[in-house]
């Protein structure tokens, strides 16, 4: 009898330890992300969320442990090539965008993992950039310059940029920061629209606010002091007890419909 097909994880982190200046930034982290999963990463300031993402993107070499992404192993593959296949949206990319560049060019730059284009935008790339803007319902922004875009519009342009090369993995590092409550909700609806697509990449969403967790999120990674506090299905893990341990404070979580909110905090 044929054995069931085993699909390779998109991301596999094992015993990951990062030590800097005699202290542990991450300590023996295990984490696996598979196709079809959408993850949320929660943790207090300084718990190691950004460091974990940097390690995955190859910007923070591990002291110990293994990282493999899309079947490639850190240390034995060309990570500069691999980065083109991981979509990343973070404040550091936003800061590199040029004020005068139209959204369409910023999105097209994602094809080369570049900020800014050299020369004319080719017709084929223009078409791809428009299609990518369409994925976040933002085609109308195509000709607007970066400098005039609102914070929410900028995030959508950066997501379109990250999506243009159809990455299997999309990392969103605090994508809602700086958005007002209404803009945030609209933005989250657009993300839901994307997450619901069959072709959607596996998403990794880093946030400080459980209200931002999409119903489509399937798994939770909670970090505390560089260690894994919880790693598994969100339905079992996103509880008052887990959050209280993760943030070292009394926290009460409520689930209303398919969204979470905080209903009590004592420090
Ligand atoms: N290169 C480094 N050298 C020394 N310490 C570092 C280095 N990078 C990160 N750290 C430390 O590791 C800890 C985790 O930092 P990290 O930025 O990953 O946290 P975070 O969970 O993303 O925090 P925040 O929610 O505030 O963004 C912090 O105490 C930070 O000072």
In short:
The protein has helices at 49-56, 79-83, 91-94, 103-109, 123-135, 151-163, 181-195, 234-237, 240-247; strands spanning 11-20, 23-33, 38-43, 64-69, 72-73, 86-89, 169-173, 202-206, 219-224, 227-233, 250-256, 259-266. The protein has 267 residues and is an alpha/beta fold.
Element layout with pairings:
Layout: E1 11-20, E2 23-33, E3 38-43, H1 49-56, E4 64-69, E5 72-73, H2 79-83, E6 86-89, H3 91-94, H4 103-109, H5 123-135, H6 151-163, E7 169-173, H7 181-195, E8 202-206, E9 219-224, E10 227-233, H8 234-237, H9 240-247, E11 250-256, E12 259-266
Helix pairs in contact: 4-5, 4-6, 5-6
**The CATH class of the largest domain:** Alpha Beta
CATH superfamily of the largest domain: P-loop containing nucleotide triphosphate hydrolases
CATH topology call of the largest domain: Rossmann fold
**Category by helix and strand content:** alpha/beta
- Beta fraction: 25-35%
Largest sheet: 6 strands, mixed
Please state the overall shape, judged from the principal axes of the Cα atoms. Answer: globular
- Largest sheet, order of strands side by side? 6-7-8-3-9-10
Can you characterise this structure?
The protein is of the alpha/beta class and 267 residues long. It has two domains: 1-85 and 169-187 and 199-236, Rossmann fold; 93-166, no CATH class. The chain is 29% helix and 29% strand. The protein has nine helices and twelve strands. A six-stranded mixed sheet has the order 6-7-8-3-9-10, with helices on both faces. It has a four-stranded antiparallel sheet with strand order 2-1-4-5, covered by helices on one side. α4 runs parallel beside α6 (151-163) and α5 packs across α6. 37% of the residues are buried. Adenosine-5'-triphosphate binds next to α1.
């Amino acid at each position: 009898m044929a054995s069931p097909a085993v699909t390779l994880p998109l991301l596999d982190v094992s015993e990951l330890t990062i030590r800097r200046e005699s202290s542990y930034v991450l300590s023996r982290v295990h984490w696996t992300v598979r196709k079809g999963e959408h993850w949320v990463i929660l943790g207090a300031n300084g718990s190691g969320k950004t460091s974990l993402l940097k390690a995955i993107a190859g910007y923070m070499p591990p002291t110990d442990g293994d990282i493999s992404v899309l079947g490639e192993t850190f240390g034995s593959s060309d990570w500069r090539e691999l980065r083109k296949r991981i979509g990343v949206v973070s404040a550091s990319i936003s800061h590199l965008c040029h004020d005068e560049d139209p959204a369409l060019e910023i999105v097209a730059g994602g094809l080369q993992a570049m900020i800014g284009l050299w020369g004319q935008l080719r017709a084929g790339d223009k078409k791809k950039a428009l299609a990518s803007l369409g994925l976040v319902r933002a085609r109308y922004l195509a000709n607007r310059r970066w400098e005039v875009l609102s914070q929410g519009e900028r995030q959508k342009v950066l997501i379109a940029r990250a999506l243009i090369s159809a990455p299997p993995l999309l990392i969103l590092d605090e994508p809602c920061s700086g958005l007002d409550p209404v803009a945030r909700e609209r933005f989250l609806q657009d993300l839901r629209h994307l997450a619901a697509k069959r072709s959607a990449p596996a998403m990794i969403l880093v946030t400080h606010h459980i209200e931002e967790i999409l119903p489509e999120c399937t798994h939770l990674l909670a970090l505390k002091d560089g260690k894994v506090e919880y790693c598994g299905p969100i339905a079992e893990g996103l509880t008052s007890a887990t959050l209280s341990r993760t943030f070292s404070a009394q926290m009460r979580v409520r689930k209303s419909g398919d969204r979470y909110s905080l209903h009590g905090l004592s420090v």
